[in-house]
Write a structure and sequence with these properties.
It is a single chain. By secondary structure, the protein is α/β, with parallel strands linked by helices. It folds into two domains: 145 residues, Aspartate Aminotransferase, domain 1; 222 residues, Type I PLP-dependent aspartate aminotransferase-like (Major domain) (Aspartate Aminotransferase, domain 2). Helices cover 44% and strands 12% of the residues. The protein is built from 15 helices and twelve strands. The protein has a seven-stranded mixed sheet with strand order 2-8-7-6-5-3-4, with helices on both faces. It has a three-stranded antiparallel sheet with strand order 9-12-11. Helix 9 links the parallel strand 6 and strand 7. Helix 3 packs across helix 11 and helix 5 packs parallel to helix 6.
Length: 400
Amino acid sequence: MQKLSQFVLNIDESATLAAGQRAKELVREGRDIIDLTVGQPDFFTPDSISEAAIAAIEKGKSSFYTATSGIPELKEAIQTFWQKNYGYPILPKEILVTAGAKFALYAFFQSVLDAGDEVIIPAPYWVSYVDQVKMAGGVPVIVTTHKETDYKMGLSDLEAALTKQTKVILINNPSNPTGTLYTKEELQVIGAFAFKHDLLILADEIYHRLVYNAATWTPVSQLGMRVRERTVIINGVSKTYSMTGWRIGVAVGDPEIIAAMAKIASQTTSNPTAVAQYAAVEAFSGNEATEKAVETMRAAFEERLNTIYPLLADIPGFEIKKPDGAFYLFPRVLGAMELTGYNFVADFAAALLEEAGVAVVSGDAFGSPENIRLSYAASLDSLIEAVSRIKKFVEGKMKK
C-alpha cells in the first residue's frame, strides 16, 4: 500500500523553513551559527499590540469561534488602514481575514484555478508560489528576470508568457527575495495588459511599508477601477508589525472571489485565531505608539541594509543589486562558486553553513540557481559578523 497521496508527494517542503530548521539543529549541537534564513523581524511585537491582546483575553473575547472572514472590529480597522495607505475605500464584503497571509494565497489559488489554468510568476519568486499553484491544479509559468532589469518583468515578458490558458498575473511588490519595487509606470503596463487580456492580478504586498532610502511604493490597485476590479491584494501584520507568530493575513478584492476564499477557509481553518484578531485591530488602528514602533523597525532595517550592502558587494565573485524594500539581499554568487569550486548553489550554501557558520537559503528555491538569499532582519552586529565570515570563507577557498 502506498501510504501517501500523489498530491502530497508532488509538493516540496518550504526551502526557507527547511534551511532554518537545519540551522537550529546545529545551534542545539552547540555550533556558533548566524541564522539569516527566515524572513521575520528580530523585534518583539509592539507593546500596544500585545496589550490589546491581553485585554481581549481578560474580557473573554478570545474564548469562542468568530466569523470565518474576521471580526467586525478588525474589518473596520482594515477599512481605515486601507483608506490611509491605499487611498480608496473598501467594503466589509471585500475583506477576508485569514490565518496568515500564506493561507490567503492558498485560498486564492484554490478559489480561482481549474486544472490547467496558468499563473504568470516572475522569477526570482517567493518559495511557496509555485507549489501553491500546483496544489490547486494550476500551471506555474515562470518568467525569468535579471539583475540588469532590476528583476522586473515587462510587457515583452508578459506577451511571451501569455497563452489561452493564462488566468492570473502574480506580482510581489516589494519582492521577496530581491527587494525589487515596481514603479507606477511599470505597474500601469501590467494593469493594462491584464485588462486587455481579461486576466486576474494577484498582488502580494506584505512588505509594502518596508521601503528604504526615499523609495516610493505604489499599489497596483490604485491605478484605476478597471485594474482594481480584477486585482486581489494580499497583505497582513507579520512583517510591518513584527507579528509573524500571530498568523493574521488579509485579502482584499472582488467580493465574489473573497466569498469563495472564505468558503475555503470555512472548511479548513474555520476562523483566524480570535486573540490574534484583536491584536490586529490595534495594529491596523494606526495609533501613535504603534506607528512609532513601526517606524523604528523600518529605520533599523534601512540602517542595516545601507551598512552591509557594500560589505557584501565587496566579496569576490558576488554581484548584487541594492534592494528598495523588504529585508533581503539576493546576491548572484556564480563567480564566487567558480572561485571556490562549487558547481551548485545548494552545495555552496551548505558549505557556508557547515564551514562558515552562516545559514542562508539557496537561490534555486526561488527559481534562481545562481543566487543565495540572506535576511537582514537580524542585529547589525550579527550581520556584520556574518558577512565577514562569508568573505573569509570565499577568500580562504580561493587560496587553496
